[in-house]
Amino acid sequence: MEQVISFFNYIMNSQEIIQTGGLLAIILIVYIENGLFFGFFLPGDYLLFLSGVFCSTKLLDVSLVSLFSGIFLAAVLGTYTGYISGRFFGDKIENKKDSLFFKQKYISKTQKYFEKYGSRTLIIARFLPIVRTFAPIMAGLVKMNFFRFSLYNFIGGFIWVFVLVGGGYILGINYPGLIHYVHYIIFFFLAVTTFTVLRGYFSAKKEMEEV
């Protein structure tokens, strides 16, 4: 039991992941968090930001190009994995009978929502924990056009990695002492993302009711 707790403490600790696991661990976590439904709890935004900071201060001994390329590829492939799982294994959900917690109208409403706001959803979802994991699965479930999905997968992935990794790198270069305030950075990201997720949830719920 202690080993299980230690493992979860490790994968939730972005600083330890970066310092002990290096680029490989970062890539693996980004891949899982971006498309496998059980990875929704993994650190995403602040892992990218801190990897940029650590890269600039040489605590993560990789080039910025390698870091950016690895994370971008992991994000794109992870999202494709979510899309494919939703598209080819979503029949069970589509054929599921209505119950207290599930209604087929939710699927039809979601499909209309993606048809109307699909591009915006996939890009904005990159910056929303939990939503980032389930958005590509839902896009596959409602059979969003693959080429359209691919376009916004690449655009969203690039913007997400560029903003967070690039932002962390630039701040690390200009303010190397930032490395001593890692915990405050994490708390800041948690506060911002929690607020954003809640706001996005209620906004999406209202829009879904109007679709």
From TrEMBL:
Stretches that traverse the bilayer: 21-42, 62-83, 151-172, 178-198
Keyword Membrane (UniProt):
yes
Q: VTT domain spans which residues?
A: 42-169
Q: Which domain of life is it from?
A: Bacteria
Checking Pfam families in the record gives:
VTT_dom (PF09335)
Matching InterPro entries: DedA-like (IPR032818), VTT_dom (IPR032816)
Membrane topology of this protein: Multi-pass membrane protein
Q: Keyword annotations for this protein?
A: Cell membrane, Membrane, Transmembrane, Transmembrane helix
Locations listed in the record = Cell membrane
Q: Which PANTHER family match?
A: INNER MEMBRANE PROTEIN DEDA-RELATED, TRANSMEMBRANE PROTEIN
What family is it from? Answer: Belongs to the DedA family.
Question: What name has this protein been given in UniProt?
Answer: DedA family protein
Organism whose genome encodes this protein: Lacihabitans lacunae
Upper lineage is: Bacteria, Pseudomonadati, Bacteroidota, Cytophagia, Cytophagales
